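Crash report, auto-generated. Payload:
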Amino acid sequence: MIKLSGINKTYYTEATSLHVLKGIDLHIEPGDYVSIMGASGSGKSTLLNILGMLDNYDTGDYYLNNILMKDLSERQAAKYRNEMIGFVFQSFNLINFKNALENVALPLYYRKISRKKRNIIAMEYLDKMGLKDWAYHLPSEMSGGQKQRVAIARAIISGPKVLLADEPTGALDSKTTEEVMQLLTELNKSGITTIIVTHEKSVAEATKKVIHIKDGMIETIESNSKHLNS
Amino acid sequence: MFDLDKFQEIWITITHNKSRSVMTAFGIFWGMFMLVAMVGAGVALERGISSQIEGFATNSCFIWTNPTSMPYKGFRKGRFWNMENKDLQILKSTIPEIQYMAPMIFAGNTNNNVTRNDKAGSYHIKGNFPAYNQIDNQKLIFGRYINDVDIAEKRKVCVIGERVYEVLFPHGENPIGKSIQVKSIYFQVIGVTRSNANINIGGDSMESVVLPFSTMQQVFNMGNSIHFMAMTAQPGVKVSEVEKKVYAALKTANNISPDDSTAVGGMNMEDQFTMFLYLGIGIASLIWIVGLGTLLAGAVGVSNIMLVTVRERTREIGIRRALGATPRVIVSQILTESVVLTLMAGTAGLMFGVGILSLAGKLLENSTGIIKDPQIGFGVGAGALLILLIIGTLAGFIPANRAMKIKPIEAIREE
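Recovered output after restart:
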């Protein structure tokens, strides 16, 4: 599903340059459930941004679903993002003047699906998240856990191949963290390749593979014994 | 290509950010209102001015005599002279460019010079030719104007102004065929006129008694004198050219030096109309400059606020980009927002302005002043909307460009 070879990324400022990713090689199978761990500044978020085509890389090759994602135009990148990738963020990133239903339906708008149709689909997904009664509430009227579930519904409504989550539980308490992780695990079981950036052990333990990144390089890739046994 | 879905998306964005939208739109609203109000006022001024000279042929000129200012052929300087009946023949035969020629003579409004039974009044007495009606068109509320037979037979008939009729006749009485006395001589009333224009020759035509020219010369012992002459040029001929030829011919016929610049007095409506025309153009262009300037200032306001808005919305736009919006979609969204806002605000301003104008029109309905019937034409309204469309697009262009450059990663970067 995802194949990275020799990915390098350097950020340049006026005086200094920062070599963030130093030759990342990574292979992620379809349906994998992976977490990426590392200290802040290790490059894990940059890696996730590159995987999500939110950022570009300097050298190396990135194949997503056997398509080379390199030197994409903004238009192509937007298209691939819309079709293949769902994003979940730490701060939810819901549009605050749109209600839950409109937020969830937004990716389908960019796919030119009619308003009526996309609202029906969005309602289905909100129902799956147990948020049907909250469909017409604004994000400001919801709890963190609810907001994150709305964001997850939005991430998967367009049927992505890959779900990228950047610290999805960073702003949640431990109980809601557990609920959200359960949800992500279920989604993974339904076949979506899931990659979570986190620094919480409990989150990493829920995934099948943990990738440790340090100073822009992959340190270790460990398989969770819990999942091997099951 | 009207995309309802896109419009709904934009509508949601606009209506969910009400105060922001209202702030943005107000500049345009105000600019449009000012433009409409000013154009309306300008039109009113123009209409008012042109109503002052309504009914006057635009290609007419008027000629009178002044004392000579130069000695010539043995005549002393400062000699009084009059045009005479013979001059009519000379002008008619030598200057074919003259279309109508209407000589006039006047007898002043001496005390109670016009009487009927027990009613009396002081009015201007004028002797006119039928052709005068072609130059200063008289609105007749009764009867007819003086005709050629009246002139040829020197009939004792008269055409009276409306006010003369009101004073001499009981309300509603048909004056036609009735007799009135002018300077103790009986004349039969053949018509009553109401003047259109506020320009009057030889006294207010509402307070005048007009006699056939030939009759007047004879009954009041005025010889062959002509006091005043009105004439129009043939279609396609400039009246100022004709005027020059008439001056020259009159000077030759009356032993006046060709270099005497004051002996023949005159004015032509062409100059007056040209002046009004330039005045109108001047006012109109001033209005459009100021009005468009105000609109432009409004547009700059829209552009500015939208720029700030785009900055504020960086995260929202970033999220949209992450969810699959292409830069083009974002640009078109910002542009359409700008255009929709501008158009709505502009239309509101337009309607408000038109409302105020029609209110003012009602208030000014009966005024005879120089401001009359303020309105803007349909074309002006449509043009203003078109300008708004362009302005809205221009106003949205810079913010849209800024929005396009927002990368999704900037938006979702944790603060």
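Post-recovery validation: Chain A is about 35% helix and 30% strand.
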